[in-house]
Amino acid sequence: MTPSGTATGRRGRPGHSLDSLLDVAVAVFNERGYDATSMDELAARLGITKSAIYHHVPSKVELLRLALDRALDALFAVTRESAATTGPAIGRLEHVVRGSVRVLAAELPFVTLLLRVRGNSPVEEAALGRRREFDRIVTDLVRAAEDEGDVRPDVDPAITSRLLFGTVNSLTEWYRPGGSLSADALADALVTTTFSGLRARR
């Protein structure tokens, strides 16, 4: 997946693309925290000069913006897929949950960074605004499924949405891609355990 607003495979100095620079930057941001990471440290980790980094991006904050947009763009792509499908709202909700698990597995460092954002800068505030929009979409799906009689009506849709994605987001704490549990198997397990309590009893 290419970060929003970047060219696929764009290359500058030999041996480093914008994508590989972004991968390293996100790893360091997650290890040390964005504010505690300097461009000098990023350059040292990459084995290049700061000027080589500036060949790709004008600032550290641009690296943060690209990283957060990469996670958010992937999540919103899932909501667009869901909106393009027909059928009951609970099916579209399940699609969003499954798709979000797959995004988390594919973009784990980027999603981890997104979940640590606290709104300390305009870039972080913008990311939080997009997260709130994503939450609204999920809440609307829960409400629609409730109206259709497929989701139990005794829990507020906003709470149900938070509980669902609290579970999804918690996967960043322990899931490691490449292990014995595939992203699809993980999504199956999460949907099985959460939707059994979510569905209305008939």
Explain this structure.
With 202 residues, this protein is an all-alpha fold. Helix 7 packs across helix 8. It contains nine helices and no strands. The protein folds into two domains: 41 residues, Orthogonal Bundle (Arc Repressor Mutant, subunit A); 132 residues, Orthogonal Bundle (Tetracycline Repressor, domain 2). The longest helix has 26 residues.
Q: What is the CATH H-level superfamily of the largest domain?
A: Tetracycline Repressor, domain 2
Distance between the termini: 42 Å
| Succession of helices and strands | HHHHHHHHH
Based on CA atoms alone, the radius of gyration comes out at 19 Å
The overall pLDDT average reads: 91
CATH architecture annotation name of the largest domain: Orthogonal Bundle
In quaternary terms, these chains amount to single chain
Number of helices: 9
Number of domains: 2
Regions with little confidence, pLDDT below 50 for 5+ residues: 1-14
State the shape.
elongated
Pfam families: TetR_C_24, TetR_N
Protein name: TetR/AcrR family transcriptional regulator
Keywords: DNA-binding, Transcription, Transcription regulation
InterPro entries: Homeodomain-like_sf, HTH-type_TetR-like_transc_reg, HTH_TetR, KstR2_TetR_C, Tet_transcr_reg_TetR-rel_C_sf
